[in-house]
Specification:
Blueprint lengths: L2 H9 L14 E5 L2 E4 L4 E4 L2 H4 L8 H13 L10 H14 L4 E6 L2 H16 L3 E5 L8 H4 L16 E5 L14 H16 L7 E4 L15 H12 L2 E5 L26 E4 L10 E6 H4 L14 H16 L2 H20 L5 E7 L2 E6 L9 H14 L1 E2 L1 E3 L6 E4 L7 H16 L10
Length: 434
Amino acid sequence: MSDLYARHRAVIPDWVALYYRDPIEITHGEGRHVWDANGRRYLDFFGGILTTMTAHALPEVTKAVTEQAGRILHSSTLYLNRPMVELAERIAHLSGIPDARVFFTTSGTEANDTALLLATTYRRTNQILAMRNSYHGRSFSTVSVTGNRAWSPTTLSPLQTLYVHGGVRTRGPYAHLGDAAFIEACVADLEDLLGHTADVAALIAEPIQGVGGFTCPPDGLYAAFRQVLDRHGILWIADEVQTGWGRTGEHFWGWQAHAASGPPDILTFAKGIGNGMSIGGVVARAEIMNCLSANSISTFGGSPVTMAAGLANLSYLLEHDLQGNARRVGGLLIERLRAAAASTDLVREVRGRGLMIGVELVKPGTDEPNPEAATAVLEAAREGGLLIGKGGGHRTTALRIAPPLSLTIAEAEEGAALLEGALASVRPSSRQVL
């Protein structure tokens, strides 16, 4: 055990998870690579949990942070803040929500917490719909709408949450149906659920479920849900903390795969926009955002230095068409991983869009989850010089692959080869590595 690991265990809670039998300390990064304290270089296919969106040590972001830090680091929302207003203007325009207002927070958890506050206040009810297998954060309210048992440490809640089918396409009672019939069945389930409850404030949903293993419904499911929700006056909150900013390649926002019924009423974002700086936020129509009758501020949300980082990062992303790069390089990576998966009976499915890819692992010859294999592959990939993530929900185990959006074709090929080798190194028992 390293000295730093021992010190970590002495002062950090047991429930703060660490990857790897021998945890590594990341000391610096550049582009799509990071280095540990021993000088070992790794190809980063997880980006600090989808947060290093463009690149490590991106000069444009580093310069913006340094220059702003030399002027003023902090002032709070009690004072006018030019970088905050400028970033809010850009995000409001990009959101697709009419007459949009933007409130900045410091994390995705806080953004979703704010969205729930807005929805329940606006609708004057504490009932929420959420998707099974979902994850929305670690605060008291967001844990209570998380449909993933592994990330829900308490059943106590300020909200009454009801869970809807549809977030997982290839498992569950409707998995055998075609896409159109799948959507029809999920809509029927939603209609039936609403017949058993009083007024509902909102449906909160990730267009692609992140912690749940990068699962997603057929395109158009949330548009079909929206038709039902609108009849009941129920709001739609799109949790874009992991799917936003072009990561899916095909769209800038995940909700755009379900756009037939228009944009969401509320959109939440975080992670990638700051490229490592702590930025989250909520976008909503003015009538919803302005519904709070009490005073509210954010001490750290929208700080000048984080807003400067967000502006520089967003500009770089748009000017270099990183959404297009995610589509092109991500498409190649998915096909390369599917080809690799064909040679092992550990892989049930390779799924995803753009540079948001899940590899679901099972016990060979079964449809059962294989957490031992996920741990073994994670370790073997690290030994080979590749960092990936893992996740999954009810009866699933998945590897999570989400590199910075500036990933090159050569790096995609390299990473795919390293992951193929890691998969091949796992014995059929899934308990040892060759």
